[in-house]
Design a protein that fits this description.
With about 180 residues, the chain is an alpha/beta fold. It has helices spanning about 5-10, 35-40, 40-55, 70-80, 120-135, 150-155, 170, and strands spanning about 15-20, 30-35, 60-65, 85-90, 100, 110-120, 135-145, 160-165. The chain has a single domain, classed as Rossmann fold (3-Layer(aba) Sandwich), CATH 3.40.50.2020. It has a six-stranded mixed β-sheet, with helices on both faces. It has a two-stranded antiparallel ribbon with strand order 1-2.
């Protein structure tokens, strides 16, 4: 079922932009979903946290947000669900504790990864690999928008289910460019 309220909120916040954009994986696109717009908009963030909370079945013991973009999503969802979360850095920091994963994580603990946008799925795979290396059990990634450019299949190859609140098709349907 398409979350019309979330689509309207993303559009109202002007998180969907049209033009020519370079994406993080090096490709280009005629549209861009600006995660920093929707993650800093209280209405969008609240709707996302609520929708993520509805999809968390209670079996996952902990949430994980991929730094930097998914950290607000994990924090807001943790408040909504009462579940603790960890932050997964793209690489271990070279100062302080040198951690790649920030926060408490028990060996064998079940974790669901929260992400903002999925294109190729590589950043989610990197986060899952880091969590698994730390002893977590990760089988699912929840994402706000799946750009429908291969992330679902790529994650499936790694034994990870991708579940999105919206797809690019949902978000762009009937939208005047």
């Amino acid at each position: 079922m398409v979350n019309r309220e979330l689509i309207d909120a993303l559009r109202d916040a002007e998180a969907v932009k049209f033009g020519e954009f370079e994406l993080s994986h090096g490709g280009t696109s005629e549209y861009y979903v600006d995660k920093y717009v929707f993650e800093t908009d209280p209405r969008c963030l609240g709707l996302i946290a609520s929708a993520f909370a509805d999809r968390i079945d209670g079996e996952e013991g902990r949430l994980a947000g991929v730094a930097l973009g998914a950290v607000p999503l994990a924090a807001a969802t943790a408040v909504e669900t009462g579940d603790p979360y960890v932050i997964v850095r793209k690489q271990a920091k070279e100062y302080g504790t040198g951690n790649r994963i920030e926060g408490e994580l028990e060996d064998g603990e079940s974790v669901v990864v929260l992400e903002d946008i999925a294109t190729t799925g590589q950043s989610a795979i990197d986060a899952v690999d880091a969590l698994r290396a730390a002893g977590a059990v990760v089988e699912r990634v929840l994402v706000v928008v799946d750009r429908e450019e291969g992330a679902e299949a790529t994650l499936a190859e790694h034994g990870i289910e991708l579940e999105s609140l919206l797809t690019a098709s949902d978000l762009l349907a009937g939208h005047d460019r």
